[in-house]
Amino acid sequence: MSFDFSQRAGLEYLHCSQLTQRGYQHGFGCNWQGSQASTLAAFQSAFDVKRIFAPRQVHGSDVLRVPFHDASSADAVIAERSLVGNAVLIRTADCVPIIFVGQKSVALVHAGWRGIVAGVIEAVLRQDDVFTYALIGPCAGVCCYEVGAELISALAPTSHFREAATPGKFMLNLEKIVIERITRVSTNIEIEAAQICTICDRRFASYRRDGTTARNFSFVVL
After folding, report:
1. pLDDT of residue 33
2. What confidence score (pLDDT) does residue 157 get?
3. All domains of the chain, ordered by start, with CATH?
4. pTM, 2 dp
5. Cβ(17)–Cβ(183) under 8 Å?
6. What is the DSSP secondary-structure string of the chain?
7. Is the dihedral of CA 5, 9, 11, 16 positive or negative?
């Protein structure tokens, strides 16, 4: 499978075209300009969505199922595909967005290093849902994501890092760590990674690069 950029009503996003053709409307949004309220309104209109379910993200491991209250906190959301007309959404700005796709349900995961340590990926995969595909969206890449030894220790055991040019620092590969975590729990999921660094690629919002409050919206329309 491959990733392609598409645009709808001025909103550019990355998606896996093969899954889109099979009826899975999804995307990893670029840095959509405007306030969060105006952006969500534009998204809702462009994709003909009745209601958006977007949790308050806290870098933890809690999993919510649609429907849920607007103020609910979690870093993973699971929705039945039968809930047609609704959408689920998460926000990232260097953390890893993951979309899990199954015949009956889908899941969106916000996986920063804290969420990975907390076990948010495992929490989703240990639910009763059966997922066939995992799509890993744009995130901080090993080319740019410099971290300290304390973060490497927090993520141990992992070998997905290398020494940085800065003494005592390391370049961390979050994408490979996510793949490692998925395959520890399930060997039956086909994994596709975008391999796009949000820090390098200015089409995407990056907190590391700009210190911005802007976010990239990842979504599935049911």
Report:
1. 84
2. 85
3. 3-139+187-221 (3.60.140.10)
4. 0.96
5. no
6. --EEEEEETTEEEEEEHHHHHTT-EEEEE----S-HHHHHHHHHHHTT-SEEE--B--SS--EEESS--TT-B-SEEEEETTSTTEEEEEEESSSEEEEEE-SSEEEEEEE-HHHHHHTHHHHHHTSS----EEEE--B--TTT-EEEHHHHHHT-S---EEE-SSTTEEEE-HHHHHHHHHHHH-SS-EEEE---BTTT-TTS--HHHH-----EEEEEE-
7. negative
Residue 212 clears pLDDT 90, i.e. is over it: no
Pairing of strands 76-80, 190-193: unpaired
**pLDDT of res. 187:** 87
Please give the structure tokens belonging to residue 62: 């809690």
